[in-house]
Amino acid sequence: GAGVSQSPSNKVTEKGKDVELRCDPISGHTALYWYRQSLGQGLEFLIYFQGNSAPDKSGLPSDRFSAERTGGSVSTLTIQRTQQEDSAVYLCASSSNSFGTPNYGYTFGSGTRLTVV
Amino acid sequence: RKEVEQDPGPFNVPEGATVAFNCTYSNSASQSFFWYRQDCRKEPKLLMSVYSSGNEDGRFTAQLNRASQYISLLIRDSKLSDSATYLCVGPSGGSYIPTFGRGTSLIVHP
Fold first, then answer.
1. Dihedrals φ, ψ of A62, to 5°?
2. Does the pLDDT of residue B40 top 70, yes or no?
3. Which whole-number Å values give the CA distances from B72 to A35, A101, B19, B24, B83, in the listed order?
4. Residues B3, B27: contact at Cβ < 8 Å?
5. Which of A45, A97, A109 minimises the CB distance to B43?
6. Strands A53-56 and B33-38, bridge-based pairing
7. For residue range A77-110, what is the model confidence (pLDDT) as tens digits?
8. Parallel, antiparallel, or unpaired: how do β-strands B4-6 and B19-25 relate?
9. What pLDDT was estimated at residue B53?
10. Non-local CB neighbours of B49 within 8 Å, separated by 6+ positions
11. How far is CA B58 from the centre of its chain?
12. Per-window interface: A 19-38 vs B, CB < 8 A
């Protein structure tokens, strides 16, 4: 697509339930990133995909968090047994690999606002 | 030391003012950076790229000072609509993961 698409845009879930967040990157972008942003805070890196593999998932806060990417395209971030502290905006970004070059194109989706009640 | 650091502000300026903020970086080999703008409750959006020669786009000028390891963003003739958080983004040494500063908040008032 023309931009990075995330769904759902808003999600309210009960504590203890599992949620899945989806990211559809820009066509042709091989790199995909997940971030989390709590209210008034900076971006917290979660995981990076290169194609279907995740060379860096050091930012995942606990084993309740997992992510996968299939076909080098769509990625799903899954949070199991959600807790109230998981409430945040989850942002996805995609890019080519050429950091700093004019075609780098690092672009964010509009995010999923997750509220755990 | 964090790889990219910014003064969180807020910078509170009147309409029409010129305002500048800096972002310091630790990786001396870095040669390219970006400034992103994030409006309240929105995703970050690319504002400008910054290479060794700097960049200018209308009222916005970004420059890279390699000797002192900082990049700057200058906004001339500030508008109310410039109120936002400005994020500095640099490369993370040895990886493809960009490094984001925590952002500088700008408030332009009438």
1. -160, 175
2. yes
3. 25, 19, 10, 9, 17
4. yes
5. A109
6. unpaired
7. 999 999 999 999 999 999 987 776 666 778 999 9
8. antiparallel
9. 77
10. A100, A102, B32, B33, B34, B55, B62
11. 16
12. 31, 33
